[in-house]
Design goal:
InterPro entries: Aldolase_TIM, NMO
Keywords: Dioxygenase, Flavoprotein, FMN, Oxidoreductase
Radius of gyration: 18 Å
GO molecular function: dioxygenase activity; nitronate monooxygenase activity
Organism: Comamonas terrigena
CATH architecture of the largest domain: Alpha-Beta Barrel
Number of helices: 14
CATH topology of the largest domain: TIM Barrel
CATH class of the largest domain: Alpha Beta
Strand content: 5-15%
Pfam families: NMO (PF03060)
Shape: globular
Bound molecules: flavin mononucleotide
Number of domains: 2
Distance between the termini: 8 Å
Length: 321
């Protein structure tokens, strides 16, 4: 049965109202093209397709240019690029170079996360690209501000999510309808959506689409190490710990050390910075050196019990195929 088109699928130019969320180190052309070929919107995240740290801004940008070209060689469907917006009004030199390269490469969808600013939005939208924006810690005020600045789609993130979680403890079940009522543009739900029940719940809450990260790590096309996929499949919420005020991990040796520091009221280290110094999500998730890093996932991993292909996953999430 054909899936109904909606204003969101029209804005995205996709068959389905589904976005594969960008994830540092654990996306690549293969995963992204597979999602887009399956009818969703695949999104390249930071370090897509690489397993070593770049040595300069220029190398970072040129690596992504190559990955964009590789993705285009694997799909004729739309796909997106992640842009991380830090605090300042003017995009920094890195983001200016990143977005300029993406526009040269004809990128049609930007997925920005962080602080909405007029200049960054203008830069991304100057050639008519579609802009999906996700505040890291959503509030009614910052969602409305992003809408006023020109976001085409907004993502409401619940505290259930994997990655850098919102600083507020606002869960997906309550944040989604709140944001749906607060803005006029389509709202996508994210945070803990791992199967068709989550997708149906998101629509019931008023979301017009789903934005899914963790579940795509555990697919055949994901570049995460097989041992990491297996670990997620055999783990549950009880195996997780907070490793910084805004990051969770499945327990590993490093995760336990970080969790201990988080509990220690004498600790003065910035634990997110410590995780960055360890290589971010690269050692634990991409390389499978689990004891040397963290494994960042959402709160719903008890229900992730298989490693399907992307096509199988998309079909089962949307009950199509
Ligand atoms: C391993 C991992 C890495 C992530 N890295 C990024 C990132 O680099 N940029 C970004 O915008 N969001 C990042 N996120 C957040 C996702 O884009 C998305 O918001 C989140 O995965 C959605 O929640 P879910 O994991 O419950 O599906 C990451 C999430 C995970 C699980």
């Amino acid at each position: 049965m054909p899936y109904p088109t909606s204003r969101l699928t029209q804005i995205l130019g996709t068959q389905y109202p589904l976005v594969q969320a960008p994830m540092s180190w654990v996306t690549n052309a293969r995963l992204v093209a597979a999602v887009s070929n399956a009818g969703g919107l695949g999104v390249l995240g930071p370090h897509a397709g690489h397993s070593t740290a770049p040595s300069s801004t220029e190398e970072t940008v040129e690596r992504m240019r190559a990955e964009i070209r590789k993705t285009r060689g694997m799909t004729d469907k739309p796909f997106g690029l992640n842009v991380i917006l830090a605090g300042s009004e003017t995009p920094d030199a890195f983001n200016t170079a990143w977005i300029t390269m993406a526009l040269e490469e004809g990128v049609t969808h930007f997925i920005s996360v962080g602080n909405a600013t007029e200049r960054a939005f203008h830069l991304m939208k100057q050639q008519g690209a579609t802009l999906i924006h996700r505040p890291l810690t959503p509030t009614v005020a910052n969602m409305r501000q992003a809408e006023a600045l020109g976001a085409d789609v907004l993502v409401a993130t619940g505290h259930d999510e994997g990655g850098h979680i919102p600083a507020s403890a606002w869960g997906t079940f309550t944040i989604v309808p709140t944001m749906v009522d607060a803005v006029r543009v389509p709202v996508m739900a994210t945070g803990g959506i791992n199967d068709r029940r989550g997708v149906q719940a998101a629509f019931a809450l008023g979301a017009e689409g789903v934005y899914i990260g963790t579940r795509f790590i555990v697919t055949q096309e994901s570049p995460a190490a097989q041992s990491v996929k297996d670990r997620i499949v055999s783990s549950g919420y009880d195996d997780m710990a907070f490793v910084s005020p805004v990051q969770r991990s499945i327990r590993t040796r490093t995760a336990d050390q970080l969790a201990g520091l988080l509990q220690d009221r004498h600790n003065a280290l910035d634990l997110d910075d410590e995780i960055r110094k360890l290589g971010g999500l690269k050692p634990g998730m991409l390389l499978g050196h689990m004891d040397e890093g963290i494994i960042s996932v959402n709160t719903g991993i008890d229900i992730i019990r298989s490693v399907p292909s992307v096509q199988e996953l998309v079909d089962s999430l949307l009950e199509v195929g």
